[in-house]
Amino acid sequence: MLLHADGAFNDYGVQGIPATFILDATGKVVKRHIGFGPGMEKEFQKEIEALLEIVPPKS
After folding, report:
1. pLDDT in tens, 22-34
2. How many angstroms separate the CA atoms of 55 and 59, rounded?
3. HEC profile for 1-59?
């Protein structure tokens, strides 16, 4: 959660709010959502779970 945006709006190309970005383990933006509606949290959960499946476990 970004509380103090400073230059982040420009860095991430925010075009509207709310804006949600899902990043992979390297910090690369893999999903971008502008706005929010009913049921979107389920979509976010699926996207995050899919990313967690491809992250190798730490040894």
Report:
1. 998 888 999 999 8
2. 12
3. CCCCCCCHHHHHCCCCCCEEEEECCCCCEEEEEECCCCCHHHHHHHHHHHHHHHCCCCC
Within 10 Å of residue 47's Cβ, how many Cβ atoms? 15
User: What is d(CA 46, CA 2) in angstroms, rounded to the nearest whole number?
Assistant: 22
Gap between the Cα atoms of 51 and 46, Å rounded:
9
Buried-state track 8-39, b at ≥16 Cβ within 10 A, e below 16: eeeeeebeeeebbebeeeeeeeeeebeeeeee
* Residues 59, 32 contacting (CB under 8 angstroms): no
Whether the predicted model's global pTM rises above the 0.70 cut: no
Contacts of 15 (CB under 8 A, 6+ apart): 34
